[in-house]
Amino acid sequence: MTYRPLHSRSEQGFSLLEMIIGLGLAAAVFGVLVSFFLDFGRSSTTQNAAAEAQQNARAGLDFVVRELRLAGLDPFQNSGAGIEDISSSGSSIRFTADFCNEPIGNSCGAQPEPDGSVEGAGERITYLYDAGQSELRRVLYEGTASQAWTTLVSGVVPNPNNVKLFTFVDG
């Protein structure tokens, strides 16, 4: 009679050494995958923050451009609207525009109309770059009792060539 084992070699399973090697390889692959996903998450967060900062800067500058286009608006030719002051450092500009017939403190509403005076709501505007706070600010009614400051853009980085922020070119 010949001896036959109950189980052949292929049915016995893995040895302890094979299990340790297999688990080690699986742990290494899992570690690489986790590292990849963590880096992807950090990169995504950074890009979202950069996109938000860019959008905030764009919205603030669109606001500035819209109001600067109104500088000097004087439909009745008697309000004296225009650019009042540009600082010698180029960090601020103050201008007036006759576009609202409401008194200071009121809102101009959806359809503002000129009234021949620059003493109305929102008609005297100053933009100021504050290098100490790294902010671009909007000031309504500068120098009056109703003076109101608003930060338009925070975290403004000064330009590397020290070019003035506001300049006036008479063309």
Write the layout of secondary structure elements.
Blueprint: H1 16-70, E1 83-86, E2 92-96, E3 124-130, E4 135-140, E5 148-154
Antiparallel strand pairs: 1-2, 2-3, 3-4, 4-5
What this model shows, in words?
The protein has 171 residues and is α+β, with helices and mostly antiparallel strands. Helix content is 32%, strand content 17%. It contains 1 helix and 5 strands; from the N terminus they run αβββββ. It has a 5-stranded antiparallel sheet with strand order 1-2-3-4-5, with helices on one face. The longest helix has 55 residues, at 16-70. The model has no long low-confidence stretch (mean pLDDT 84).
Quick recap:
The chain has about 170 residues and is of the alpha+beta class.
Identify the notable features of this structure and list them briefly:
171 residues; rod-shaped; 5 strands; five-stranded antiparallel β-sheet; alpha+beta
Unreliable runs: none
Strand percentage: 15-25%
SS elements, strand count: 5
Shape: rod-shaped
Rg value: 34 Å
Overall mean pLDDT stands at: 84
